[in-house]
Specification:
Blueprint lengths: L7 H20 L5 H9 L7 H17 L16 H10 L4 H9 L44 H6 L2 H21 L3 H6 L1 E2 H4 L8 E4 L5 E8 L12 H9 L4 E7 L6 E6 L18
Parallel strand pairs: 3-4
Antiparallel strand pairs: 1-2, 2-3, 4-5
Helix pairs in contact: 1-4
Length: 280
């Protein structure tokens, strides 16, 4: 494996290629990652397919840091070259409109034939040595957008409602599959009947009748897209860890998948403060 640093020209070409693919994904256009990799390598200085793949994964990590979606399938890879961060910032402007439209787009309900089949394993825990460092906030470069578009997507009410509706179907099907039709009929979308202040979204049940409190987080993007959770939701998960589950829906654009994180949310994720309440 080559240890040569990537030149600015190589990094610029690779970032352009990645952002072209991301734009296609946001528009719903088909593209071939392997073909892009091959064409790009012809313009680089003897880089291997694997090296290009890793650089694309590095770009995914930078985009997440900046509050942008990443290409589903390019798992974020940290330990990023400083030059890469600079070049990504420089080249983001042309896709900002696409991203903004996508995160704000109204989401219709999705029909899934085999709703129980959407469940997958959760991601493996990130080793402490490569976890995301707190962001350093400085006067922004005018060329670099400063809006957290992932947070804007998290505030998309139509997307949240569609995700909760799918989880309601999932829970009813899960209980019915265990012969618990009465419990299935009792599943309640608390976010609607009580409100967003309850600390969770859906009241469901275990097969023995015990409570299952579910918080639903939905994204159109990849499995490792960060999600946003309030202090009240974190405290509720801690106080009710024995019955709490976070349901993470991802890839909601076309083929939604779901993984579950049972127990207090702090067992599973790194929590990074993004807002403070200030008193005078």
């Amino acid at each position: 494996m080559s240890s040569r640093d990537w030149s600015r020209l190589e990094v610029e070409a690779t970032v352009r290629d990645y952002l072209d693919m991301l734009a296609s994904e946001l528009r719903g256009d088909e593209f071939n990652k392997a073909a892009h990799n091959k064409a790009l390598r012809a313009r680089l200085d003897g880089r291997t397919r694997g090296a290009v793949e890793r650089k694309h994964q590095n770009i995914s990590a930078v985009l997440i840091e900046l509050g942008f979606p990443y290409i589903n399938g390019y798992k974020p890879l940290v330990n990023v070259q400083g030059l890469l961060r600079d070049v990504v910032r420089e080249q983001l402007a042309p896709i900002v409109g696409l991203v903004e439209n996508d995160v704000e787009a109204s989401q219709s309900q999705i029909v899934v034939v085999d709703v129980l089949g959407i469940r997958v394993d959760p991601p493996a825990s990130t080793p402490a040595s490569v976890r995301e460092a707190p962001a350093e906030y400085v006067v922004p470069n005018r060329r670099a957008p400063t809006i957290d578009y992932l947070q804007k997507e998290a505030l998309n009410r139509s997307l949240g409602d569609a995700g909760e509706s799918l989880v309601m179907e999932f829970e009813r099907a899960r209980l019915q599959a265990q012969g618990k039709d009465q419990l299935a009929r009792s599943v309640e979308q608390v976010s609607r009947t009580v409100g967003d202040h309850a600390g969770f979204d859906i009241h469901s049940y275990e097969v023995n009748g015990r409570d299952r409190f579910i918080e639903v987080k939905t994204t159109r993007y990849g499995k490792l897209t960060p999600f946003y959770i309030s202090d009240g939701e974190v405290r509720f998960s801690r106080a009710n860890a024995h019955a709490y589950h976070l349901y993470r829906l991802f890839g909601f654009r076309k083929e939604p998948k779901l993984f579950l994180l049972p127990g207090g949310i702090e067992r599973h994720v790194q929590l990074q403060a993004v807002n403070y309440r200030a008193h005078l």
